[in-house]
Design a protein that fits this description.
The protein is built from eight helices and seven strands; from the N terminus they run H-H-H-E-E-H-H-H-H-E-E-E-E-E-H. With 241 residues, it is of the alpha+beta class. It has three domains: 58 residues, Winged helix-like DNA-binding domain superfamily/Winged helix DNA-binding domain (Arc Repressor Mutant, subunit A, Orthogonal Bundle); 46 residues, no CATH class; 86 residues, SH3 type barrels. The protein has a five-stranded antiparallel β-sheet with strand order 6-5-4-3-7. It has a two-stranded antiparallel ribbon with strand order 1-2. Helix 2 crosses helix 3 and helix 4 packs antiparallel against helix 5. The radius of gyration is 25 Å and the shape is extended.
Length: 241
């Protein structure tokens, strides 16, 4: 069981019982009592009102009620479509997480709404993307989240190959392909790479050194300025016409 899931389970147990001991929690969750002590401390630090009393156990100081999340049919279909798109076009790990999240929602849905999800006529075919693309996506996502520098061999449009060391910053989906935005050490500038043209990808073992002018926010600011200039130019041309 993941630690986040275990903390959630402890909170639910405390909500449903007047008091519970560390030993009871440890047996229920199949971990050591020392682990429970650490978990209780972390829950308390995060704001969960846990109170402990020697010889009695743990309890919540006051009711911890989470308001129910209510979805209508359209909202549920949009979530289902999102899961299908993630499953078809992203990496396997992210797809599993999306499916798991939907399973948790479905578990508390009325039967009628479950039928709406099952009868949805919105489809996202999976056969249009190869396994290499999905593998690259997952490795890049983890590198971005871990702030890890990468080395790639890239198949360019002119059929030549190029080796680059990159600071991966973000992934963009354009309806057909994913692209990687990165700071390229070779060019000392932002560069965009199609994920499906990455032949080899590995970590260099170095962490990304975030320098002013080389972040994703800097790239986004440049793009906004470029598009704004284009919009201003188009507006002038239309006015003159």
């Amino acid at each position: 069981m993941r630690r986040a899931d275990r903390l959630f389970q402890i909170t639910q147990i405390l909500r449903n019982r007047r008091t519970v001991t560390a030993k009871q929690l440890a047996e229920r969750l199949e971990v050591s009592e020392r682990t429970i002590y650490r978990d209780i401390q972390d829950l308390s630090l995060s704001g969960v009102p846990v109170e402990g009393e020697t010889g009695v156990g743990y309890m919540l100081r006051h009711s911890l009620d989470i308001p129910p999340i209510m979805f209508d049919a359209d909202e549920l279909e949009s979530l289902m479509l999102g899961v299908k798109m993630i499953t078809a076009w992203s990496g396997n790990e992210l797809a599993k997480s999306a499916r798991s999240a939907l399973d948790k929602i479905e578990a508390v849905l009325p039967q009628e709404l479950k039928k709406n999800i099952e009868s949805s006529k919105l489809f996202v075919p999976k056969f249009v993307i190869d396994k290499k693309h999905k593998t690259n996506f997952e490795q890049l996502r983890q590198a971005i989240n871990g702030k890890n520098e990468i080395k790639i061999i890239y198949h360019k449009l002119d059929d030549d190959q190029s080796s680059r060391v990159l600071s991966p910053l973000g992934l963009y989906y354009w309806g057909k392909v994913w692209t990687l935005v990165a700071w390229c050490q070779l060019r000392e500038a932002f560069r965009v790479f199609r994920v499906d043209r990455i032949i080899m990808l590995e970590l260099t073992g170095e962490k990304i050194k975030f320098i002013k002018g080389q972040s994703l926010d800097d790239y986004t600011a440049i793009q906004k300025e470029l598009y704004q200039d284009k919009a201003d130019w188009d507006e002038k041309q239309n006015y003159q016409t």
